[in-house]
From TrEMBL:
It holds the Pfam family zf-HIT. GO terms for cellular component: Ino80 complex. InterPro entries: INO80B/Ies2, INO80B_C, Znf_HIT. Transmembrane segments: none annotated. It comes from Lottia gigantea (Giant owl limpet). GO terms for biological process: chromatin remodeling. Residues 61-131 form the INO80 complex subunit B-like conserved region domain. This is INO80 complex subunit B-like conserved region domain-containing protein. Residues 69-112 are annotated as: Disordered. Residues 76-100 have a biased composition (Basic and acidic residues).
Length: 192
């Protein structure tokens, strides 16, 4: 039976590229055109959709509406270009204004200053109006605090940081390790 089917398929030209009988594919989802092309049968000429652009006859009123809409679009595009130009100019001018302000009007220029000039012709002191000589002395500055020393016994180095667990001032990693060992031994003795 199989041999007879193969011979019939050979005569009908229904063998695939490998010499096997073509299996019937599910033709249900295929359109009529696809089925006809698949089986090579075209009983009647199938309709074909037009592929080119179809010119539509427009009435005078429709032509006028299209022209009005096209004119509006052109006007809107022109207005948008003008608006963009104006925004660009404003941005550029604003940048130049900010640069000019930075150079001329700094905050420091508003502060009254005493100016001392040394010249070959002589020395001059310029004092702003409203200031009296001798100047009122400023309060003396407090002396700086003495540097904090490392909190580990036997170490006299200056503190660099505090221990995150014990908050003891420390100077190095070795002192940090000594401090941890010391704090653990204290907690062990306080627990017992």
């Amino acid at each position: 039976d199989e041999e007879k089917q193969w011979l019939d398929a050979l005569e009908a030209g229904e063998l695939d590229d490998y010499g096997d009988i073509k299996k019937n594919a599910n033709t249900k989802p295929l359109t009529t055109r696809q089925k006809a092309l698949l089986h090579g049968q075209q009983e009647n000429e199938l309709l074909q959709l037009p592929s080119g652009y179809k010119n539509v006859e427009l009435t005078e009123e429709q032509l006028q509406r299209r022209q009005v809409r096209a004119k509006k679009r052109r006007i809107q595009a022109q207005e948008k270009r003008e608006k963009d130009k104006k925004q660009t100019l404003d941005r550029l001018l604003k940048k130049q204004d900010s640069r000019a302000r930075k150079g001329r009007g700094s905050k420091r220029s508003n502060i009254p200053r005493v100016r001392y000039l040394l010249k070959s012709g002589g020395n001059t002191i310029s004092i702003p109006q409203g200031f009296q000589l001798p100047f009122t002395p400023q309060p003396p500055r407090l002396p700086p605090k003495p540097p904090v020393k490392c909190g580990v016994k036997g170490c006299n180095n200056v503190k660099k940081y505090n221990c995150s667990k014990t908050d003891v001032p420390l100077c190095s990693l070795t002192c940090y390790k000594k401090n941890l060992i010391h704090s653990q031994s204290q907690t062990a003795t306080s627990v017992t």
